Amino acid sequence: MPFYQPGDLVIGGIVSQVFYFHDDAPLFNEQPAQSLIEEPVSIVKNYQHILALAFAVKEVNDNPRILSNVTLGFQIINNYYTAQMTYKATISLLSIQDRFVPNYKCGTPHTLIAVVGGLLSESSFNMATLLEIYKIPQFAYGTCSPAQGAKMLFSSMYQMVPNEDTQYKGIVELLLHFRWMWVGLLTLNDDSGDRFLQRVLPEFLNNGICDAFIFKIPKQTYVADILDLLLTQQEKYAVLAEKNTNVFFVYGEFPSIYILQALLFAFHAVSLPPLGKVWIVTSHWDFTAINMERDLDIQTFHGVLSFTVHSNEPLGFQTFLQTIKPFWAKGDGFIQDFWEGAFYCVIPVSDGDEGSSQTCTGEEKLESLPQPIFEMLMTGHSYSIYTALYAVAHALHSVYKSRPRHRVLRELQNVQPWQGTTLEKVPASYLSLSISTHLKAVDLWTVPASPPKSPEDDCGSRISSPLPSQTGFEDELAALYCTISNMKECVPPISLCNDYCFPGSSRKKKEGEKFCCYDCAPCPEGMMSSQKDTDVCVPCPDNQYPNKAQSECLPKLTSFLSYEEKLGNILAMLAVSFSLITASVIGVFRKHQDTPIVKANNQNLTYILLISLLFCFLCSLLFIGWPRKVTCLLRQTAFGIIFSVALSSVLAKTITVVLAFMATKPGSEMKKWVGKRLAKSIVFSCSLIQAGICILWLSTSPPFPDEDMHSLPGKIVLECNEGSVNMFYCVLSYMGFLAMVSFIVAFLARKLPNSFNEAKFITFSMLVFCSVWLSFIPTYLSTKGKYMVAVEVFSILASGAGLLGCIFSPKCYIIILRPELNNKEQINRIRNRYKE
């Protein structure tokens, strides 16, 4: 029985409060066939849609500023969620009251000015097929899944909810916020489900989200088919329960959504474990519980994130709901089914029926019902109906507000729908509707067998928070999920094809699988990743380096051979010690300068060699400390020239020994070559060549202070860049040449009969010198940073100490400890022994 309230103008309403599981209801019978079940399934929560229309009509009629002296009425018909009954309900609205004859004007016709409905997109288009003929405005308050070209075909239909694409973008933002990249899709097994996939899958792909599976829900079925459906779909339960897929995105309309609920009930009934997933749904889905669910002690959807249509709470709506009683309005053909279904009781039809334990008293309170059964707050769908009614009222008010009042009623009786509801004149606030910028997190669990005694016993809970990009939502969702999963730590779940690739690693694609599935590869040496699931590792800035875990960049420390550190301190002490020893040797030689051992082998060359060794030891200090421009210029050049002077002196001493021995032979012409001039020439010319190489080096590509960012991990090496490496090795090569010539000459003269013959000592010294510097080259090239400098300093000290020790330690031994050998008699005795 429809709900009818007369008025000068009538608003038609087609609602869906009762449905059948099948789609074979006859078109023109008063009641649909009941087939496999005894009575229709009542969706008691949808009764608020009827009350929203009635409340809006009451408000408009009570408001003298809108349609003064004009009364709005309404006629509401249930379409049972079927196409046949939707067509029948639409034709009934086009007919006179109680007559199923469209276009019949006899009797007492009502003026149908607009129609509100339907809840499903399919119902809306079925209604529009007939209403478009009469150009009657239609306000669809439910889903918005338009077929291609629907706006052109149905120009008189207005959607009170925004396009679905808006919701999809919001859901993608939600998934990205929580990094839910592995999502299961559940959709209708019809054309609207296919359109949904065509829109969502590209959006997922563009944002790096993968569908773990696609589960298609049957659109309608018989009650008896639920068991068969359970058997055929049970194998897919393992896919739904897969541990990596913790988020489901569901697209559907009632009653198909109820089919999903029934399947989950059935899965639980056969002892399958609960899924425990996060469900994300669009505004199509209103959470309802039907009568047959009251006896099922299971939890269906433990936690659901739902986009909802914008809704405000009209002033006085809850007070209006509190006045609703079983016989609150004459002609309400829905109240009995609603009341009995909501409170699980029976309204007596006679006095003899009273007294039963299940008899309705009429004093039951709507506010005591749980949210899945009935809501005291106006839902999004109800608010769309409420807004649609006001849109019509303001459209009529805009058309006739400037006309004399005595003419308004007479003109309205003859007005045509397309004349009276010029919606272009409606204020924008009534038609420019959009999806709310809020999400509702709904936790829906078992509906109790009996209604709660107070609002505190409500079975459902809701969270209303801003979009996830704003603060607050994540904490509320975590708290909700903690309640759902009984977890000790309240954190949102992870929904990925595989575990995160943590910082310090990057994603590596798995061959043959979707791009959301990947392996984790450690970052290469010297690179890092600071975030989860990084596609590539990146190098740190030059002045930073990756930590051991390669998860962040740390500032590099400066490194150079410093006096403060142990290595630099030891080398500096060695340099100073060798310098003091050399100075002591010079002092000993100066004190005993008149003795034969000091005078032998050219006294001047001895002093030149000792002084050059002293400066060699001191120049090693230039390599220690902060590299500066002056020290960088002097390091290698001073070392090269001073060492060349020392080696030139050694060569001159060796040649002097050979020439002096050869000059003692009778008739030798070598006497003219023996003298100080030859020794000085050798020292000067050999040193001048090295000085020329160093001058050329400084003039073309001189050394300079530099920072080496890459040689040592985590260190900025402060060093002297050699400028020209070739020139550096030229300096070393020339010193090596002098050392080799000295070694060869000394080796040949090592057995000459002279008690003060230095040739054999020079041979050992050159052997030490060459060994040190031949070892220096590979060691120098294989070390980095300050240790390269330390190797060179050590080589300078070792080679200098070799010269000092091998050449002068025997002489110091004789001078200090064996002075009896330091006399002319000892020299003559040795010479006579040689002549014999």
Low-confidence stretches: 21-39, 424-439, 443-472
Largest sheet: 7 strands, mixed
Q: Major sheet: order of its strands? A: 10-9-11-12-13-14-15
Helix content: 40-55%
If you had to describe this structure to a student in words, what would you say it looks like?
By secondary structure, this protein is α/β, with parallel strands linked by helices. The protein has 4 domains: 214 residues, Rossmann fold; 191 residues, Rossmann fold; 51 residues, no CATH class; 230 residues, Rhopdopsin 7-helix transmembrane proteins (Up-down Bundle), CATH 1.20.1070. The strands form 7 sheets. A 7-stranded mixed sheet has the order 10-9-11-12-13-14-15, sandwiched between helices. Strands 1-5-2-6-7-8 form a 6-stranded mixed sheet, sandwiched between helices. Strand 6, helix 3 and strand 7 form a beta-alpha-beta unit. Helix 2 packs parallel to helix 3, helix 17 runs antiparallel to helix 19 and helix 19 runs antiparallel to helix 20.
Q: SSE layout and pairings?
A:
Blueprint: E1 3-5, E2 9-15, E3 18-19, E4 41-42, H1 47-62, E5 72-78, H2 83-94, E6 112-116, H3 121-134, E7 138-140, H4 150-153, E8 157-159, H5 164-177, E9 182-188, H6 191-206, E10 210-217, H7 225-233, H8 237-240, E11 247-250, H9 256-269, E12 278-281, E13 304-309, H10 317-322, H11 335-343, H12 380-400, H13 405-414, H14 417-420, H15 428-431, E14 435-443, E15 461-466, H16 473-485, E16 505-509, E17 518-522, E18 527-528, E19 538-539, E20 544-546, E21 553-555, E22 557-559, H17 566-591, H18 596-599, H19 603-619, H20 629-663, H21 676-700, E23 704-708, E24 715-721, H22 725-748, H23 759-782, H24 786-817, H25 824-835
Parallel strand pairs: 2-5, 2-6, 6-7, 7-8, 9-10, 9-11, 11-12, 12-13, 22-24
Antiparallel strand pairs: 1-5, 3-4, 13-14, 14-15, 16-17, 18-19, 20-21, 23-24
Helix pairs in contact: 1-12, 2-3, 5-6, 7-9, 17-19, 17-24, 19-20, 19-24, 20-21, 20-22, 21-22, 22-23, 23-24
